[in-house]
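Subject: Sanity check before I submit

Could someone independently write out the structure tokens for this chain? I want to compare against mine line by line before I put it in a report. The sequence has 387 residues.
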Amino acid sequence: MTEMVFGTTPVRAGDPILPRWWRTLDKWSLACVLGLFSIGILLGLAASVPLAEKNDLPRFYYVQRQAFFGGMGLVTMLVISMMSPRQIRRIGVMGFAAAFVLILLLPLIGEDHGKGATRWLSVAGISMQPSEFLKPGFVAICAWFMAAAQMIGGPPGRLYSFITAVVVVLLLAMQPDFGQASLVLFSWLVMYFIAGAPMVLLLSVMGIAAAGGFFAYGASEHFARRINGFLSPEIDPRTQIGYATKAIQDGGFFGVGVGEGSVKWSLPDAHTDFIIAVAAEEYGTIMVLAVIALYCTIVVRSLLRLLRERDPFARIAGAGLACAFGVQALINMGVAVRLLPAKGMTLPFVSYGGSSVIASGIAAGMLLALTRTRPQGELGEILRRGR
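---
Independent answer below. Compare away.
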């Protein structure tokens, strides 16, 4: 009966770790991640050259850095993808604790790099954004709390996860980094829904979040300026949104040609937040659709594989990681086409940035590990555990 419902497991006792890992891995999702990274390098060859020349650096300086950090991120992803759910939970909790401490230090030693928000730490000439590393750890610790709450005599894990989410969202909003705060809150709502939260509670939390947005609009000039720019019926052609919108329009379906785009010479963040505008201008809508298809494949395949998962932690954490991954990409591309207000959020594995690509590798590795095919135990054992 178990095999009819959940399918037979390909895991064999005594298998070496590498053959077992390869046989149980979601190879389609892995291929999509590699495809996104390759597209990021391709776009970086065009988008980062103007910035390198402006800073009197070698033409492919930023591409080389992206390849280096991307290689680190991919290696990290592959190593983490070989871990068990218990190991994922442990490294997630430890990673969350480390990133949380770094975020607490931002008001004292953080930098804003002229962006109007204190989000970065600089160590030995290398900048890092702790909030990027906080997200996968946040998902792991909240999923742990929620899974523990489902055990007989377990702790009030849902309450602990709610308190954790509130503290993290407030810390991110104080930077201010409302984009990452919204993403963290969204991932928590997804996990809470998977864990069986009542709809009334979820709607109440969304109402509180909306009220917080209105408060932030009145209290933060940084936030209000971005909202006003988004709501304005006129697009200033000299702004980043103006340049990005024109580039997307000029690209059409097939693009203006490789290396022929002009937006990369005007956009300060062409290699990071607005790299999809470079893709749309030079390669056209067909490239953008290919990028969207890769993200959708990762998210949909991960959620479908998690439907068979009986481990509450793996199911909840995997859903939170998959949805956060997809929504971050959606936000980045939505900003570029002016469907969403500017948020300063990178496109996972495509945008330039050491923190972004390494943190994306950690999150993708955790997702690949949690979606691997594994023995689910006997049905009777699962029923006894739920009594």
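---
OP: Matches mine. For the report I'm noting this point. The first strand starts at residue 121 and ends at 123.
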